[in-house]
Design brief:
alpha+beta; 12-stranded mixed sheet; 11-stranded mixed sheet; 29 strands
Length: 638
Amino acid sequence: MLCAALPALAATPAVAAPPPAAADPAAAPRSEPVFAAEPVRETTWVDTGLDGDGDGATDRVAVDIARPRTDGPVPVIMDASPYYSCCGRGNENELKTYDDEGRPVGFPLFYDNYFVPRGYATVLVDLAGTNRSQGCVDVGGPSDVGSAKAVIDWLNGRAKGYDAATGGAEVDAGWSTGAVGMIGKSYDGTIANGVAATGVDGLRTIVPIGAISSWYDYYRSDGVSFGADPSGLAETVEEGGRPECADAKRRLDEGSPANGDVTGMWTERDHVADAANVRASVFAVHGLNDLNVKTVQFGQWWDALAANDVPRKVWLSQTGHVDPFDFRREEWVDTLQRWFDHELLGMDNGIDAEPAASVERAPDEWSDEASWSGESATATTLHPVPGGTDGLGGLTAEPAPADARAAFTDDPAQDEYDWAREPDQASSARTLFTSAPLEQDLRLAGTGSISVTATPATPTAHLSAMLVDYGPATTRDALGAGEGIRTLDSESCWGESRDGDDACYRDTEATTTDVDYQVLSRGWADLANHESLSQESPLTPGTPYEMTFRLATTDHVLPAGHRLGLLIGGTDAAFIRPPAEPGRVELGLAGTSVSLPVVGGDAAARDAGLDRTPTGTATVRPDRLPAEPRVLLNRDGA
């Protein structure tokens, strides 16, 4: 649930004394665009207290500021990013721009255009080692998080800032109330998560969009590698021009072994473990079809926040790695303004009494609820059972007989899309188990897991598992080029345009596709990590091993008449690297099960008919198959 209104901050001319909260959001009080004068645009270099580049001097990070011309202090909306010069932000890949004297002119995204006239400062931070900041990138580590945290400390009078990158006069942030809201998509939102996990005073709220909560889970999954490493991302965002950062990248390589083991470096970059420190409220946004920052990142973060009673709100879309500005623009800007008004200005505008969760059920069709049902869903266990054809079977509430077996031979050239199509056909590369047709709708919301008893025929084995909804649907085309959106030629404007800083952005619309199956959730693991994720155990061919690994967070309603499918295979070529010696893997079905986050628990599963003995297999039309994704990792970094 959301928290009660925060105490009001120092008065600002942008906000009149608020009337009682209105039931209608449109009638609720809100900040008004009363600051029409040209904003103050300036740069401060904040001392991080760290020496990431090893030059013997503490690093300073560049903080570009746009703020209203007023004598009263104002709160801050802050986006700390490594992408302001290398890659750009937003759907139009905007970069920061400067005048001939180095003063900031172009601020990416709409935050300054919209919020500065409403009495907020916009602060865009170049993370250490990027753009005009000193230091080195460490991809979610102490330098990344510490450089952003130092800016919040400066805004609250606890750190030093200067008017030059070296030397210069000390400057303070007397224009700031000290109340900060961090926002950002992808890497930027990840930094917001990391800073919140430090418990820094002054950070009132964060808005992480498609953000990482554990860097291990971005590059690895339960012992397997997705095929990229953090040093490559560091090289990209520092634009390859910082030889003094070679040692920093070497440490990244040493801390991220290719075998997928968890190391101290990964543990240091796990913000979920520090969720108890979070003092800021959280408004999270994630695409349920995000194959870049996968949904387990949202799910494990949300569960940790809920366990620590952190005030929270969430939007879950059908898109991939897409900003809500580009899939629900008008509603997003309005909701974001009211969120910041409440959290940073202390306005009693009623947003804390509104539904805390909004989930896209069909393209542009949203369902709201008081709190996200993923918190109340309970684990329901289903078991794969053998069928009349080898490799095809059923999925039901009753365990398989003790001697039941199924097997596949790892084919590293195939992926989950090869496995999912033609569910009525056996394949040597995977096993598939499907439920009986559902008798009523069934909602899965949360993070599931799969437990296997697997016997490899070689010394190395990787496992992949997927939950599949078999049945016709019209969905956003999240696997297509725009990941669920199409960019149009028309524009809409959000705030005040200034010379060199346009407030207008190209409009978008949903792209849709008709399909006969959808992959709802995925998980991958290295069987050699069955005892520990931090150390592999050698596998002996012919020996059975037990392992449980996660399936990514989902929120999906399976309609009546559809079937739920469980795929189990070896190397999923769309995502993971193959083992050194791919081979045959036998599953002991009596020791294999899947735990599903069912809204309504066992009773809802029974009502939907999941306890029935399946007959027949699912079918799909070959002209209604989901497209395979273009790029899965590091499309815009994280």
